[in-house]
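Extended Data, panel c. Modelled sequence:
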Amino acid sequence: MKTIKGPGVFLAQFAGDEAPFNTLAGMAGWAAELGFSGVQIPTWDSRLFDLALASESKTYCDEVRGVLDEAGLEVTELATHLQGQLVATNPAYDVLFAGFAPAELGGDLKARQQWAVDQMLAAAKASRNLGLMAHATFSGALAWPYFYPWPQRPAGLIDAAFGELARRWRPILDAFDAAGVDVCYELHPGEDLHDGVTFERFLAAVGDHPRANILYDPSHMVLQQMDYLAFLDIYHQRVRAFHVKDAEFNPSGRAGVYGGYQEWIDRPGRFRSLGDGQIDFGAIFSKMAQYDYPGWAVLEWECCLKHPEDGAAEGAEFIRQGIVRVTERAFDDFAGAAPDEARNRRVLGIEEER
């Protein structure tokens, strides 16, 4: 068994234009002071990371690692959630997602999609240059506008969507395979891969590709009213990244899982800082240890109430306390005995062969 690495922190929600949040060195010092040992880097934030340069230059990647080494940190994963979103975008969301790509691409949906693919291919090379084993991203969505079966979906619509999703992602998965890195899709509402069933459908469409894996974030499962512990029992072999994020769902007579278009603070399902929600992280960390999860436990802070810096400070210790240091021997070893085939046969009542 392996002891989970951590605590790590996803820098995306904390980055800003003022020090120490506007440079990687500044954020590394901040994270280390709070007790984190790793950082997940958003590749779309040029204040922190140059993805194009990282894909081409091992020297630059060594410099990035050097900055983190000085603070006693490691890179947990690179993240391409914004770019992954644009690999597959339904035209219904064209305007809303336009800001995820460079402004010069304008309203050209096809150009943005090609840019996103190029970004993903660069992320594979950058991850390899940094010596990483996993990568965090979104799948994008072609079918999401039709997640609720009304009006009735035309026959074959979802099959066509997942076929096209697989066609777009297969070359990217192959590139990550060549780099020796797992692609970990964060299962998230708004993505075509948002639960176990949709992940299975995609996995079948890409021929059970070995690099198609999961970023496990139980908060999104709470908001969908899924059994996030049973999920690990079913899919643990494909879980290769982990966002530690809390959530709560408070049943209401006025709104349900769709939230009634309300602000986050008023929705029945809300993200919370670690320890303030309803998720049983003790059970999650135990299952992660049981199933030999090989990666990092990374704080993703999203909370509708608490200040982010407080959430980060509390979250580092919360994760540290939650990680199970796995045992190297069985608790009842003291009562065991050395192997003895003759004795075992006597215990079982098996006569010695003559």
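The chain has a mean pLDDT of 96. This feature is highlighted in the accompanying rendering.
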